[in-house]
Structures are given as structure tokens and as C-alpha cells.
């Protein structure tokens, strides 16, 4: 079974940057979608960014131009580069993956999910 482990969260001032990593215990080949979700206190979990096996990426409107999702297949690691961070980006960030082409907007559709890493922007 694939395990996903996030890292890279922390506290940063507004305008700063963080780079999140999601290490997979297994490789993703063939058809897949990998995504980052976040959940702020009192808010619903939302998909922040996703990347498919065809290389296509998608972003939630509020992070477009600030966040970049990427995948290093050689390292079995998913990344989320976050620049120009805002207090509204404060949340627990989760990575998720599954072997389907559809990059679902809800984390429950994904077969593999990490435990999350906290990002706090002040």
C-alpha cells in the first residue's frame, strides 16, 4: 500500500514562501492524479492544486500565479511551491493520489492521503 508523507510546513510572514513536499513510498506510473488539499479551521477542505499523469496542472483560483505543483517521478515526491503567501493561506495541507485520470475536487475520492502539514501565515 502506498504511504504519503507531507513535510515543509511551518510559520511564515505574509509575502513569504514555503515549499511543501509529499514523499510517496511507491512510484506512480501509468495513469494517476496527485493533488494538494488544504483545510482551514472552520472551513471546508478544498483542492489547491492537482497534476495528472499527462502533466496537466490545475489550481484553485485564489492561488493561481502564486503556487506551483510539480512531481519528481525519480524521487517519488510531489511538491507545492507557495510564494506570496497570505494569511488566508493558513491551513493544514494534505497531499492525495489515485490511479485515475480524473483529478477529483474532493479528497475522499483519492485512495492515498497523507496526514497533513501545517502552514501558518501571519
Distance from first to last alpha carbon: 37 Å
Order of helices and strands: EEEEEEEEEEE
Question: Low-confidence parts, pLDDT < 50 over ≥5 residues?
Answer: none
Q: Tally the helices: what do you get?
A: 0
The count of DSSP E runs of length 2 or more, i.e. the number of strands, is: 11
Protein structure class = mainly beta
Radius of gyration: 13 Å
Beta-strand percent range: over 45%
- Sheet with the most strands, sense and barrel status: 7 strands, mixed
Tell me the overall shape.
globular
Percentage of residues in helical conformation:
under 10%
Question: What is the averaged pLDDT score?
Answer: 95
Condensed summary:
The protein is an all-beta fold. Helix content is 0%, strand content 48%.
Plain-language structure description:
By secondary structure, the protein is mostly beta strands. It is built from no helices and 11 strands. The chain has strands at residues 4-7, 10-12, 18-24, 33-39, 46-52, 57-59, 67-72, 77-82, 91-98, 112-113, 117-121. Strands 2, 4, 5, 6, 9, 10 and 11 form a 7-stranded mixed beta sheet that branches. It has a 4-stranded antiparallel beta sheet with strand order 1-3-8-7, with no helix packed on it. A hairpin with a 4-residue loop joins strand 7 (67-72) and strand 8 (77-82). The radius of gyration is 13 Å and the shape is globular. The protein starts with a strand and ends with a strand.
